[in-house]
């Protein structure tokens, strides 16, 4: 490896670094900070104009943290950060999370090593040099022994392939690529496709302003009140008081939040007791509705039905028109699609200016320049909002499509499934590390903390390689297979794989269909620590080539 934070060495038009990072979102930002602290020379490339990744792109109306939320959706690497940053609400708005990330970028002077508006178009491994070379859209090329893919688990948008959609002449926006200029809905007839988290957050906001909203729903969803509220000064003080203890609790919790674990099982309770418990949680709202429920909801059909029935009853209570309420009834195992939090979503269907179209009985046939045509007729519209989600978890890695040993592309390697070891590495792609990739807890864990923990492990691994004079490392295909079986074994003990979702790849035509995330929560970090303790068991090492070998 080269020296500390020096200007890049150049040969021809190539810049040389120790580490190239793709992506300046939550993970890429910490990667830059961490490797720089290790004394390495680092370059980050990102297609956006500034830091933030998913929080830079997803600025649709109503976008908020819809997980367990603030103040613990944050970095933990610096106690000062926690001490100096005030979070205003439990479900922070997109702009608040972006402001925090901008503060982090300023505080640690990150931007000086990030090249924005620069898309990495190609990444290739050079076996002789034991280095990766990336080619970018600005013509700059860079090479480094290590390539960190912090490309985002939810960043490659899913654009629906519907006849005539490209002929639609009105305004058209994907929630995941929302314009930076204000978008006005006033006086407009708006159609929204998609009722996942993004659709359910944005529809009430759009309906408040638009002349009319047509919600085009393929799958009815369970959603619970977000319960957003101000964070009190006392709560902020408590979060800061004993930082080490809070961090220890976050590390011990399955989802990476400082919450107490519990052992409540729905089937140990009577239906009356269960409903009373659900009601209490519903009144409070927030993601803890799910976390503080019962531990058997995701594994027992009967326990699952008790919660599903409770939410369906709530929808019937809220929505005045019984026919609309029936169309809004979800019919899959609750929690086996990403749980959703809303702020008045079901109430929105009581408005005169909102129409629900159930695409299962009335599918979209085509778009015209001025309308969407479903089987039952034509809906004239001025604007189309695509809340159609992402080619999640693996999509951004495949879009990058790095070429490993022998020029093999990731697309070839991942034809049938997303082969990987520990959710971090891929056989045939030495020294390439994924953050929040397939096979890792990724979206099932507090993502800033998960990124920190993965990157700390990678940093230690790099140190180990240097200490032992190793130039390249990759997993064996046997260890990949065993890891794949472990990931699937955990998932198959739950109801999760039995529902079509972006977790199973079912939202993208032709994508390998299986549950690719590691569902063991914080156990994952114990697993990767154990691998390290056993001298990085499951990896194949290659001695560093001498400069004159290359
Ligand atoms: O995407 P989704 P999202 N025709 O895939 C429908 C995170 N997030 O952007 O369910 C018709 O969940 C699709 O229908 P179906 C969070 O983890 C976080 O909403 O596949 N409909 C579904 O209704 C979340 O889970 C935050 O049948 C089509 C919708 O589009 C993840 O991002 C905020 C269609 C897509 O829902 C993704 O959420 C928002 C078609 N051709 C999101 N194609 C925060 O924390 C797709 N659909 C702030």
Report a brief summary of the structure.
This protein has 550 residues and is an alpha/beta fold. It has helices at residues 26-37, 54-57, 79-84, 94-107, 197-209, 233-241, 243-252, 271-284, 288-291, 301-318, 322-327, 345-348, 395-400, 410-413, 447-467, 477-492, 523-533; strands at residues 9-11, 14-16, 19-22, 42-45, 114-115, 120-126, 131-136, 141-144, 146-149, 171-174, 189-193, 212-217, 223-225, 340-342, 354-358, 364-368, 371-374, 377-380, 383-386, 432-434, 470-475, 539-543. Helices cover 31% and strands 17% of the residues.
Helix content percent band: 25-40%
Physical arrangement of strands within the biggest beta sheet: 1-2-8-7-6
Do you know the CATH architecture of the largest domain? 3-Layer(bba) Sandwich
Broad shape: globular
- The CATH class of the largest domain turns out to be Alpha Beta
Spans where pLDDT lies below 50 across 5 or more residues: 1-5
Description of the structure:
With 550 residues, this protein is α/β, with parallel strands linked by helices. The protein folds into three domains: 243 residues, FAD/NAD(P)-binding domain (3-Layer(bba) Sandwich), CATH 3.50.50.60; 113 residues, FAD/NAD(P)-binding domain (3-Layer(bba) Sandwich), CATH 3.50.50; 75 residues, no CATH class. It is 31% helix and 17% strand. The chain contains 17 helices and 22 strands. It has a five-stranded mixed sheet, with no helix packed on it. The chain has a five-stranded parallel sheet with strand order 5-4-3-9-20, with helices on one face. Strands 10-19-11-12-15 form a five-stranded parallel sheet, covered by helices on one side. 48% of the residues are buried. The N terminus is likely disordered. The site of 3-acetylpyridine adenine dinucleotide has 28 residues, from helix 5.
């Amino acid at each position: 490896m080269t020296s500390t934070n020096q200007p890049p060495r150049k040969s021809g038009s190539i810049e040389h670094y120790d580490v190239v990072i793709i992506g300046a979102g939550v993970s890429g930002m910490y990667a830059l900070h961490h490797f720089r602290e290790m004394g390495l020379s680092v370059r980050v490339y990102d297609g956006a104009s500034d830091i933030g990744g998913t929080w830079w792109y997803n600025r649709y109306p109503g976008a908020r943290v819809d997980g367990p939320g603030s103040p613990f959706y944050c970095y933990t690497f610096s106690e000062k950060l926690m001490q100096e940053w005030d979070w205003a609400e439990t479900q922070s708005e997109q702009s608040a999370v972006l402001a925090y990330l901008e503060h982090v970028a300023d505080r640690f002077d990150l931007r000086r090593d990030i090249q924005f508006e620069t898309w990495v178009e190609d990444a290739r491994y050079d076996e002789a040099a034991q280095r990766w070379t990336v080619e970018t859209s600005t013509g700059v090329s860079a090479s480094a022994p290590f390539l960190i893919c912090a490309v985002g688990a939810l960043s490659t948008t899913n654009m629906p392939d519907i006849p005539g959609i490209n002929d639609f002449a009105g305004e058209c926006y994907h929630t995941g690529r929302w314009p930076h200029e204000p978008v006005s809905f006033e006086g407009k007839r708006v159609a929204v496709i998609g009722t996942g988290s993004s659709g359910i957050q944005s529809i009430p906001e759009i309906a408040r302003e638009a002349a009319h909203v047509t919600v085009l729903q393929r799958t009815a969803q369970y959603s619970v009140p977000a319960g957003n509220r101000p964070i009190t000064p006392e709560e902020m003080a408590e979060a800061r008081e004993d930082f080490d203890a809070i961090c220890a609790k976050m590390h011990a919790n399955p989802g990476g939040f400082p919450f107490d674990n519990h052992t409540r099982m729905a089937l140990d309770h009577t239906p009356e007791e269960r409903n009373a418990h659900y009601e209490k949680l519903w009144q409070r709202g927030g993601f803890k509705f799910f976390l503080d429920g019962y531990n058997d909801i995701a594994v027992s059909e009967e326990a699952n039905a008790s919660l599903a029935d409770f939410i369906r009853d709530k929808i019937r209570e809220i929505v005045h028109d019984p026919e609309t309420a029936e169309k809004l009834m979800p019919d899959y195992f609750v929690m086996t699609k990403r749980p959703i939090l809303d702020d008045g979503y079901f109430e929105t269907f009581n408005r005169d200016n909102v129409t629900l179209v159930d695409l299962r009985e009335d599918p979209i046939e085509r778009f015209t320049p001025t309308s969407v045509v479903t089987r039952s007729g034509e809906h004239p519209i001025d604007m189309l909002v695509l809340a159609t989600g992402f080619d999640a978890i693996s999509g951004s890695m495949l879009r990058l499509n790095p070429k490993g040993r022998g020029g093999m592309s990731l697309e070839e390697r991942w034809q049938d499934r997303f082969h990987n070891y520990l959710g971090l590495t891929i056989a045939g792609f030495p020294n390439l590390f994924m953050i929040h990739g397939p096979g890792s807890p990724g979206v099932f864990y507090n993502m800033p903390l998960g990124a920190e923990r993965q990157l700390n492990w990678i940093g230690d691994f790099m140190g180990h390689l240097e200490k032992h004079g190793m130039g390249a490392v990759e997993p064996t295909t046997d260890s990949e297979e065993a890891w794949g079986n472990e990931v699937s074994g955990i998932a198959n003990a739950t109801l999760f794989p039995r529902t079509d979702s972006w977790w199973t790849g079912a939202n993208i035509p032709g994508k390998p269909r299986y549950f690719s995330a590691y569902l063991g929560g914080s156990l994952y970090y114990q697993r990767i620590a154990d691998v390290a303790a056993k001298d990085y068991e499951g990896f194949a090492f290659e001695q560093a080539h001498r400069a004159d070998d290359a």
